[in-house]
Design brief:
The protein is an all-alpha fold. The protein has helices at 3-23, 46-66, 71-86, 89-103, 107-115, 121-139, 143-159, 161-167, 176-179, 185-202, 205-230, 235-258. It is globular.
Length: 259
């Protein structure tokens, strides 16, 4: 391999590690300090991180069925595994975003509420609805369907986060979201196409189209809400975006499976 090829591969591997460090609580190798200034460059690797999380959650669902457990308990196991791997990072973002847009009257007050570590009524209800929505969708799937659905869902919900990066500007002048930088368009396109290709391969092209439309619409709707209420993206907006995309994908897959 040429020196240029080796450098390219090293850079991509660093970006993958950075994506894993941002989106999970998995132990990752330490990175050179200069890479931490542009975490948005790792957006192309977000669906690969989703593959790890979804693969673990899918295995938990499949293994629960092998042990003779009903789909309801398998769904709980899958959700518990995904939450353990991410440290409930996305759920926390959803709750903070819901509290902010529900409880604040001005952009400044909404952003202030979103930074508050305490959870309010809107955040609590949003978490209940999120877990219930995902639990209900997963539990109706067969072991094989559930395993594949969880892999594709976690890839899709993270791959679409680049859409928020590209359509919104940072809502604040500080914080990780502001320092992330706008990811390259090629990286965003790759992050979207990879889960679409996985869905087409493991499920079907029509299913891939359906979940892309559903999840994409959910993320764009969330981005519109963020723009209207806080004027751009924050880390909480990305967490909320992952959650709504996850729900939209799982509901679409569940409706197609039982329809």
């Amino acid at each position: 391999m040429s020196s240029n090829g080796g450098l390219w591969l090293k850079q991509r591997s660093h970006e993958f590690v950075l994506a894993g460090a941002l989106l999970t609580r998995l132990t990752m190798p330490r990175l050179p300090a200069e890479l931490l200034a542009r975490p948005g460059d790792g957006a192309w690797a977000y669906p690969l991180v989703g593959l790890l999380v979804g693969g673990a959650a899918g295995f938990a669902y499949w293994a629960s069925a092998l042990l003779g457990l009903p789909g309801s308990l398998g769904a709980l196991a899958a959700l518990a595994v995904s939450c353990a791997m991410t440290g409930c990072l996305h759920e926390d973002g959803l709750a903070d975003f819901a509290d902010g847009i529900g409880g604040g009257r001005t952009k400044a007050s909404k952003l202030e509420i979103m930074r508050d570590s305490r959870i309010g009524t809107y955040g609590t209800v949003s978490l209940i609805l999120s877990f219930t929505a995902r639990y209900a969708a997963i539990s109706v799937l067969s072991p094989v369907q559930g395993c594949l659905a969880l892999v594709v869902t976690h890839m899709m919900s993270r791959g679409l986060l680049g859409v928020i990066f590209r359509t919104l500007e940072p809502a604040r002048g500080d914080g990780l979201s502001a320092a992330a930088g706008k990811p390259r368009m090629a990286g965003v396109a790759f992050a979207i196409l990879l889960p679409v290709a996985a869905a087409a391969l493991f499920l079907s092209p029509l299913v891939a189209l359906a979940i892309t439309v559903a999840a994409g619409t959910a993320v764009l709707g969330l981005a519109w809400l963020a723009h209207r209420h806080v004027g751009g993206h924050t880390g909480d907006v990305f967490g909320a975006g992952e959650q709504v995309a996850e729900i939209a994908t799982l509901w679409t897959l569940a409706s197609l499976a039982v329809g």
